[in-house]
Amino acid sequence: MLVCKTPRLIISGLGKCPGKTFIAIGILASIKKYLKKTVSFREGLDYIDAYFLNSASNFIGANLDSYLLGDEPIKSIFADCSSNADFALVETDKSIFDIIDYDAACSSLKLSDNLACGFIIVVDCKTISRTELSALKLTNFDDCDFKIEGIILNRVKNDSKLKMIKSTIQNNLKIKILAEIPDYGDIDCFKKDLYTKAVFDKELIRKWIEFAGEKIREHLDILDILILSKNRDAFEYEPIDNKIKLDNIKIGYCFDEAFCFYYQENLEALKCYGAELVKISPLEDNSIPNDIDGLYIGGGYPEDYPERLSQNMPFINDLESKINSGMPVFAECGGLIYLSKFIKKNDTAHFLSGLMDIEMNLAKKIAGYGYVRANVIKENPFFDLNTEIIGHELHYSSITKYDKTSQTCLELTKASPSLNNVDGFLKNNCMGAYIHINSNSCPQWAENFVKSAIKFKYNKGIYDGRQE
Question: What is d(CA 276, CA 107) in angstroms, rounded to the nearest whole number?
Fold first, then answer.
């Protein structure tokens, strides 16, 4: 067993969307001016906020999802990513008390317990009530040893309400108020247009992060944060086993305005097994380089670019040729949309690649969100037969029609009704699925992906259904 002594804090919220990501980014942007190595982590199902947090810190952390990973792996992943760090900040997905299981095993409280780490709570002064504030004194989760280190009041505007909030906190809760942040409008509401712009405009995100840091420093004493982060007990953890490099191969991953959702740890896992990663754009490129041995099509917004995607026939024809020749292709959520025949938006069908006999509809409300559990019922290049995989889904589209003779390899045991318990559509070595996986919770995925790419590199043949 090893010991983690990294200075650390968890930033969480009370109520819906209190603006904790803006606060977290401002803290990271400020602290990295004084410390050499700061690391950020994100709890829960998220790509967008995690990207902003990583951009604001010196080093990239990982997703710390209790449901996907479990207690001991979370300790190991945190300690490994924050090794020799001067400061680590974890932003939770939901509010401090929100849970998805009855016994709070996957709550933010449990995360705090695992990491021996205290909370900073962000409160939205525009929406918070006295009753909600009083909830900070109430918890039945006696098995969790957690401590609220301080409260940050955000979106401060109304003087009379602010007086009530401060009185409740100081007199009833006796928790230190660390800062009062004015209401800066909608800057901390992460819309997808800001995300897609920021991913490809480093100057934009640099300015935004600098703004967040400047505003936080005006109202928050960063020294308070550093002192609180160092007042932590060490915790023991098991070291992570090193992945063994299998061979030198190249795996392309689609990265442009249409496809930009990737867990960084998924890309790192592929590299650890020997893959050189190459960015590819179905929007701009005419073909897939001939030395590419596998392709990863991640999530994103292909439904926003159907004309550009469908009109790039040279790329589609080349992808079809590669699939027919046995190249392993993993298409995740947005990737599955891209492989479909068309997606219907506002009663108008928009054609896509048509490489799978699937038709879709795009709704205005979320069709599926949450955790997914699936049994692997058919051999495929990515997941071991007769194993269970755990992932998540977030999509506005749903499948309205598909060829019933199509081969599918996943039988869903926990998912939204929109998926009809079916996922993992197969075409040779190509798999399209709504499920998002994280390599830390599903290590077989990266290893099998690389093995399949090695097989394609040397054999250039169609997958024969046999697992190595």
Answer: 36
Q: How far is CA 63 from CA 42, 89, 196, 312, 437, in A?
A: 5, 12, 20, 34, 11
- Cα angle 320-355-417, degrees, rounded to a multiple of 5: 145
Last residue of a domain, one of 237, 271, 286: 237
End-to-end CA distance of the chain: 33
Number of domains the chain contains: 2
Which pLDDT does position 396 carry in this prediction?
93
Angle at 269 between CA 245 and CA 390, to 5 degrees: 130
Same domain flag for 253 and 230: no
Task: Tell which residue, 427, 296, 438, 417, has the closest CA to residue 354.
Answer: 427
pLDDT digits (tens, 9 = 90+) for 154-202: 999 877 888 889 988 888 888 899 999 998 876 544 455 566 666 777 7
Secondary element (H or E) of residue 68: helix 66-69
CATH of the domain at 430: 3.40.50.880
Instruction: Tell whether 232 and 257 lie within a shared domain.
Output: no
Low-confidence stretches of the chain (pLDDT < 70) are: 96-106, 138-146, 186-198, 460-468
Q: Are residues 228 and 264 in the same domain?
A: no
Dump pLDDT digits (tens) for 71-85.
899 999 999 999 999
Domain span at residue 21? Answer: 2-237
Task: Give the rounded distance of the alpha carbon of 80 from its chain centre.
Answer: 18
Distance CA 162, CA 165 (A): 5
